[in-house]
Automatic annotation (TrEMBL):
Species of origin: Pedobacter agri
Superkingdom: Bacteria
Protein name as catalogued: DUF4365 domain-containing protein
InterPro entries xref list: DUF4365
Domain DUF4365: 8-129
Amino acid sequence: MTIEQIKEQLSNRFIGIIASFAGFSIDKGDLDLGVDFTLKKSYSYINSLGKVRHTYDGTYIDLQLKSTTENSVIVGSTSIKYDLEVKAYNDLIERQLSGNAPLVLILFVLPYDQTLWVDIDNNEIRLRKNAFWYTPAVGATPSLNSSTIRIEIPNDNILGLDFFNNLHKKFYP
């Protein structure tokens, strides 16, 4: 595997762990059309026969994942900056404008030193360093840049264990 493929796989597993822990499922589509995963929320109800039934609530959020190392972001006191491919940025804008289900960017940031990415001991499995989420500001317009656009992600947009529940409430109050 290439380093880029390893980074991608680590970010995929990270998202899967957090989603599962929060009771969500993530589905990977068959085609690469700017969406890496679709997040679905499940719930339970008691059917007419008195049996518990588990199903999806009919809402979903599409996720676009990017994985990088800390030397590829600019860390500030209130935000981080990242150079995102224009096509990925414009996909985020188009989704906002089209009124369809939300598309959210998740930026997974690994340490520069590859030996620090994953660690296991008798008590813990650690995957370093962190991940952030991003959606363009309301009213943002598509970029005409040829390759990248610098986005600014607030430090508060860091992923934690409650991220998917909070994200779902944001888009489906």
